Amino acid sequence: MLESKTFCIMPWVHFHVTQYGTVTPCCQAPWEEANTFGNINQQSINEIWQGEKIKQFRKTILSGGVDKRCESCFKKEKEGFTSLREITNSKYQHKFELALSANKLGEIGNTPPIYFDIRFSNVCNLRCRMCGPWSSSSWFNDAVQLGMIKEDADALTYAFKNKVGFFEQFENLIDSLEELYFAGGEPIMMEEHYELLHLLIKHNKTDVQLTYNTNFSSFNVKHHDIFELWKQFKSIVLAASLDASEKRGEFLRKNLNWNEVITNRQYIQKELPHIEFVISCTLNCYNILHLPDFHKDWTQQQLIQVEDFIPSLLIKPKELSVTILPKKIKEDAILKYVEHLEWINTIQSVHIEKRNYMIQQFKNIIKVLELNKDKHDVELFRKNSAAMDKIRGEKTRDVFPELAELFQ
Ligand code: SF4
Q1: What's the CA gap between 3 and 17, in Å, rounded?
Q2: What's the pLDDT tens digit per position in 101-111?
Q3: CA 91: distance to chain centroid?
């Protein structure tokens, strides 16, 4: 199964609720109602988990087929990148027997989901250039001014109409729980996230793996003390969505305060050393020439080990993809990334597997730049970037002088 080019363990272990209340195969699959397994506001967890739609999905996988909702994983793999399918298969190998013993109808018996990813809402304090109103409530005004949404639309999106009902069902499944994945919006801002942590503590389930995708900007939320709560959990992974440092970082992730990012990182290093910290950065046309410097800088400041850095390519919106860039910038970037790999080779690593994965990601970035060297399509980027600059009172070219070519 690990070697299979199509198998995915997700529908035997994973339950993903979007910020719209729909349940989809995972966070990589499309959100639209037609593509979902159900809606948590209309059905129970068990009804969806045992439902015909997820059974059909399991059946397709068991027959060696590929569901159209999984396009993003297979596209990534074709381009040489590691997909969520591969990561999850590797992590949940100990659950392969569930699929091996499954009947051809895709039924799962009484086995509940053990790995939840619940997007409670789109609440977020930042308005990142690469994001939009569907994932950040703070994006609302920008989106109205850009004509993306109407003024009378809702800024906030909540997954649950009846939160209590969901929590009651969840509590019944807590004994078999192995992992909770929190992302956003910004999970640290979400009240429901704290309620789940308290529920785990109440049930002595502090061995559950907590995995976060966080913008790492603010840990002071109302009366909650997240650091004290985290001290009670054995296994925590924080993947910080940071794509650039200082003024570039603050520009890309608007409302971010870089000094607070550094302070937060230093505090966690000192007070919560059991937390596994990794920078999960999105390579886009803004940060392409800066990213290696950011990685080097944090490694040299000993804020991370060299291998605690996972670059991945932004795919949407496509006008922010590195593939739109002029040939000269791509050539400069290729040289820079080749040099960066040479630098990485001079640094000792603690975790060889993680290091190899990171090196492979950098190599794949070089490959994508090489393959797309002669393509360029900067018009939409320039138009959108100028519109956003106007709304936010910013000047992209002043923050990223290395991209002068992009604006000529
Ligand atoms: S193949 Fe990819 S998109 Fe499909 S369920 Fe698995 S992880 Fe999700």
Answers
A1: 28
A2: 888 888 998 99
A3: 17
Strand ranges of the sheet holding 276-283, from the earlier edge strand across to the other edge: 38-39, 22-24, 14-17, 115-118, 179-182, 209-214, 236-240, 276-283, 309-313
Position 149 confidence tier, pLDDT thresholds 50, 70, 90: very high
Gap from CA of 67 to ligand 1 centroid (Å): 9
Residue nearest to atom 7 of ligand 1 (CA): 85
**3-state SS class at 231:** coil
**What is the percent of the chain where pLDDT is above 70?**
100
Which of 137, 118, 240, 226 lies closest to 181 in space, CA to CA? Answer: 118
Distance from the CA of 181 to the center of ligand 1, in angstroms? 15
Beta strands in 14-92 (DSSP E): 14-17, 22-24, 38-39
Other Cβ atoms closer than 10 A to 393? 6
Around ligand 1, the residues with Cβ closer than 6 Å are: 8, 10, 25-26, 28-29, 70, 72-73, 83-85, 88
Spacing, Cα 54 to ligand 1 middle (Å)? 13
Q: Are 209 and 237 in contact (CB under 8 A)?
A: yes
To test the ligand 1 pocket, which listed residue (28, 78, 95) has its Cβ within 8 A of the most ligand atoms? 28
